[in-house]
Amino acid sequence: HQSTAVDGLSYLHYKPAKSKNGVLTVNGSVPSEDELTPIVFIHGLGVGLAPYLRFVWRLAALREVFVVELLEVSQSGSTKVLNPEEMPEAVATMLQQHGHSRACFISHSYGTFVTSWIT
Question: How far from 85 is each of 47, 81, 90, CA to CA, in Å?
Answer without folding.
Answer: 25, 11, 9
